[in-house]
Amino acid sequence: MKSHHHQLLFMFLVFFAQKIELLTAETFTGTYGINYGRIADNIPSPDEVATLLRAAKIKNVRIYDADHSVLKAFSGTGLQLVVGLPNGFVKEMSANASHAMAWVKENVQAFLPKTSVCGIAVGNEILGGGDYELWEALLGAVKNIYNAVDKLGLADVVQITTAHSQAVFDNSYPPSSCIFRENVAQFMKPLLEFFSQIGSPFCLNAYPFLAYMSDPENIDINYALFQKTKGIYDMKTDLHYDNMLDAQIDATYAALEDAGFKKMEVIVTETGWASLGDANEAAATVGNARTFNYNLRKRLAKKKGTPLRPKMVVKAYIFAIFNENLKSGPTSERNFGLFKPDGSISYDIGFHGLSSAESSLLSLKGLYIKLSPGNLHVSFKTVEGIVYAVVINSPSS
């Protein structure tokens, strides 16, 4: 019988190791993620944010830099983190491969594997923006960062991407007519070629809020909010759209197909709705923000694709965890948060605030569960939301 127990133990440990390996290689768990913007002086600490996210069961998180306080706070939490290389570093990383290697070592490798850094976003919304020198530097920076990751043996764990705004597109209505802008295409196509070689998705920042605000007279707000509406019909593809986000995603797929990259996946790296705005931002209300985010969460939970790509499950990172009081621009820019600066909810879409999150995780500390398959005793210990399995006894019979 002793060998039987050892065999059981071996099978258990192999299974446990496989589960850990799968989690390590996964770049997006499920379909729902969130952006953790920190342009504010009144938001909770990174440790408290980690507690909040784990209680909300949001595993996928994007930050816009590689702040070490965040990386340390997320250590051991199981949260899947995409760090950002800020636009201000892109030219330097493009010009100097050794600087790219140093950056990856200092801001990614040094925190693995305890902190699950699963991606690096090289710049944000560069193509289509106003700095043409950045356009020229982007591909070189992407390649140097990827090569650094590859040389360090991390290419299977850390995915390299860059996020695009809808300013890269021309003729996005109806979705099937969408193509890349002519001046963007010469920079976009080599970038897409490289991403297709390394298996990276196309990252899209898509805001039905902004699209509706740009043309409220001709766009039904219900279409933007995932509410009942007649939607739109695309004659070329014979497809019907009942919400704007699906149409924005399929417009992206149409542009990718036109450029020769039909198989590339689209991931929504930012989307959201403001809960407060200026006088000319009438759609920015708590009611609309709640409706959009509640319906978006329901739509993502269905794990379905779009009309044009029904088998490509939609994945999205919501913008954002908090309202950010130091952001510039219109009032709406400072009011995209699902949570208020004190960690309480901005509006109810099924999440709980920081105080309830802290109490729920505290109640799990020190919890023991014992199972006895045969004479094999395994103890499962839950500490701060993380489950540890320990074989405590394997007697012979």
UniProtKB/TrEMBL annotation:
Signal sequence annotation: 1-25
**Origin, by domain of life?**
Eukaryota
Q: Which UniProt keywords apply?
A: Glycosidase, Hydrolase, Signal
Q: Name one GO molecular function term.
A: glucan endo-1,3-beta-D-glucosidase activity
In short, the EC number is 3.2.1.39
- Give me the segments passing through the membrane: none
InterPro entries named in the record: GH, Glyco_hydro_17, Glyco_hydro_17_plant
**Which Pfam families does the protein's record reference?**
Glyco_hydro_17
GO terms, biological process: carbohydrate metabolic process
For the keyword Signal, the answer is yes
Q: Which reactions does this protein catalyse?
A: Hydrolysis of (1->3)-beta-D-glucosidic linkages in (1->3)-beta-D-glucans
Family per similarity comment: Belongs to the glycosyl hydrolase 17 family.
The name under which this protein is listed is glucan endo-1,3-beta-D-glucosidase
Q: Record the organism.
A: Populus deltoides (Eastern poplar)
Lineage of the species this protein comes from? Eukaryota, Viridiplantae, Streptophyta, Embryophyta, Tracheophyta
